[in-house]
Amino acid sequence: MAQKAAFFVLNDDNTPHHTGFEARLAEIIMPRIAAMGYELVRVRMLGRERPTVQIMADRADGTQIAIEDCEAISHQIGAVLDVEDIVPGAWTLEVSSAGIDRPLTRPRDWNRFSGHAAKVEMATPTLDGRKRFSGIVLGAEGGEGTLRLDDGSEVRLTLTEVKSARLILTDALIEATAAPPDSQ
Questions:
Q1: 81 with 156, same domain?
Q2: How many angstroms separate the CA atoms of 99 and 123, rounded?
Q3: Section 107-129 average pLDDT
Q4: Chain mean pLDDT for the chain
Q5: What is the rounded CA–CA span in Å between residue 156 and residue 144?
Q6: Predicted TM-score (pTM) of this structure
Q7: Which residues are bridge partners to 145 per DSSP?
Q8: Is residue 1 part of a domain?
Q9: What is the signed CA dihedral for 100, 106, 111, 114, rounded to 10 degrees?
Q10: HEC-encoded secondary structure of 76-125
Q11: Are residues 142 and 91 in the same domain?
Q12: Amino acid 20: pLDDT
């Protein structure tokens, strides 16, 4: 059985809508973690012999996700996936935060991290034949994300055609995502 690339389609500002088998996983996972106070950033299924289900989540209240949050999600979703028996055979579950150099999977992410550097790879080439872009995120609107490239030009990318988009780790990003001193 051949593995296919994990593409996602966005259906609103907060929800990445996955395709294929990952869509089935997301359909099971999203409402359950939402009831726990979390948002699904991304789900992926990796590997063949003993597949790994990777869940990346954020806290719905916008505060930083902690190890205890990942443990709670892991216990809840592990039990649900066992009962649903959607993943055949033996499998591994990994739950993590989106991290600082996180993927941009939702329009909300593009807007939240406006002003920060990112790399984007498209599923298919754009009109000028390019598939890869790096630049400063300018936000998302109307199903398109906008980047300001190094040469100063701007490019609008159709979010449903984005294969992957990830923030680039910079000092400015670290400073912007650091927890306030009173929350440590």
A1: no
A2: 23
A3: 92
A4: 86
A5: 6
A6: 0.80
A7: 140, 157
A8: no
A9: 40
A10: HHHHHHHHHCCCCCCCEEEEEECCCCCECCCHHHHHHCCCCEEEEEECCC
A11: no
A12: 80
